[in-house]
Amino acid sequence: MENVKLLSLSERIKSARPDALCFEDDFFLFDVNHPTVPDRPFKMDTYGFFLCLEGSTQGTIDLMPYELRAGMMAVNVPGQLITRTFVSNDFRGISQVMTQRFVDSLGLPYNFSLAIGIRENPILTLKPGELNAIRNYCDMTRSLLEKKRPYQAETLRHLTCAYAYGLGTYLYSMAESRRLSNDELLMQRFLAEVRTHYKQERRVIYYAERLHITTGYLATLVHRVSGKSPSDWINDFVVMEAKVLLKSSTLTVQQIAHELNFPSQSFFGKYFKRLVGLSPKEYREGEKLR
Q1: pLDDT for 178-199, tens place per residue?
Q2: Considering only CA atoms, which of 153, 125, 196, 206 is closest in space to residue 22?
Q3: Taking burial as the number of CB atoms within 10 A of a residue's CB, which of 154, 176, 177, 222 is the most buried?
């Protein structure tokens, strides 16, 4: 089967937010408030930076609960599954969205530990100086994009490089200040394996073998760290992907069942209804995220 085609986040922004400032469909800057926050699950295919200025919002990022309040920033990377479960009426912030193509054009060195740090710790609590620096970057970017200017592309890339290096410094200091326990590190490895393979594998033994431990030890460790079983985590990822495909693609239920490696549409339907309480068709036709 061909790769699933979802409406890209940049296409959604252009459709839903005509007021967004844009550079070559690769970089977007726009204000966000309560009515404009998505109310259904979605999967990132871009990099996103959201600075919360007022109010709060709650939800999950890759199934991990989060709360974003004033003075905090969310950093999202491609592949993350995101839901919103609560948005306060006074919620307000600034969103920046960058495609992989734009990020690649910056020529930044790849740092694996920082990349893991962003994925595992997507919510940043900012000090006043850090908050002001990010707001200044947004203000300069807004001014740059409001009208065509000479060297606009070069200026935007240099500004964003400086921003990225500043963010990297913050993440490095955060990682240095908190050392994960061996159990937490193994839990991270388990979740990384699930993120990579959940479309193909739902068997706990598969992940235990990938980590070179027994299924019993994996179950004990995962429950001790997270309060959930390995099967719970695997099922949660599969269900969230199914919800995204049901709401954000034109694939049939049968095609989604195939995409998620179920033996039949019937098997997928029973699996989905057991975990969600609705059939795939019922969920697609009107039910928002539960």
Answers
A1: 667 889 889 989 999 999 999 9
A2: 153
A3: 222
